[in-house]
Amino acid sequence: xxxxxxxxxxxxxxxxxxxxxxxxxxxxxxxxxxxxxxxxxxxxxxxxxxxxxxxxxxxxxxxxxxxxxxxxxxxxxxxxxxxxxxxxxxxxxxxxxxxxxxxxxxxxxxxxxxxxxxxxxxxxxxxxxxxxxxxxxxxxxxxxxxxxxxxxxxxxxxxxxxxxxxxxxxxxxxxxxxxxxxxxxxxxxxxxxxxxxxxxxxxxxxxxxxxxxxxxxxxxxxxxxxxxxxxxxxxxxxxxxxxxxxxxxxx
Length: 251
What we know:
Layout (H helix, E strand, L loop, with lengths): L7 E4 L2 E4 L2 H13 L7 E5 L5 H8 L3 E5 L3 H4 L5 E6 L3 E3 L10 H17 L4 H12 L1 E10 L5 H11 L4 E2 L2 E8 L13 E5 L4 E6 L5 E10 L7 H24 L2
Parallel strand pairs: 3-4, 3-5
Antiparallel strand pairs: 1-2, 5-6, 7-12, 8-9, 9-10, 10-11, 11-12
Helix pairs in contact: 1-2, 1-4, 1-5
């Protein structure tokens, strides 16, 4: 049976649960270094965009898929795949599905290697942020007893999407209901802002919820600027989350 992998790290003297993307980034970065030629990195569209940057930096191809491992596992020449909901495929030639056991082993091995070198997973996350920009992700979910409200809100996004989010004008709205050149049709809408923030809105496939996946990217010059950039990105994400909640709850 497919299993997930979760992890927590010591951060500032206290334990912090890592988000699914924060586990996927160091796993993808580590695995990309030893993959045979031609192997790809992949993640679902609702996962962070950092894996694409990691793949490019490592000279690997990257592919985005629809949500779920039934899509990720279909990627041809898959070398590593993940979704933000704590699913990781670190050895697709052995288990072509999310497998928390093998992912946990790879993550523990990486943590041990870093500790032996006087480093840590928290430090590796900072290194990745310094290299690819600070990526901060979050989610907003609304649960409904009246399921008829979900398509009403999806139509609102399609025809009256927010004009700005987090202080930045919305630059592009993509409706995936007709599919794209690279993705099959799905009931989801993607909003991009000029500042680099992204919001993906879709109904949950398993619960009576409308889910919004938020991400913002803050450029940074070097590792010393990561904490301040992370704070700015977090503040922007919280602003976007507040604005979306007001938008979704408006009559």
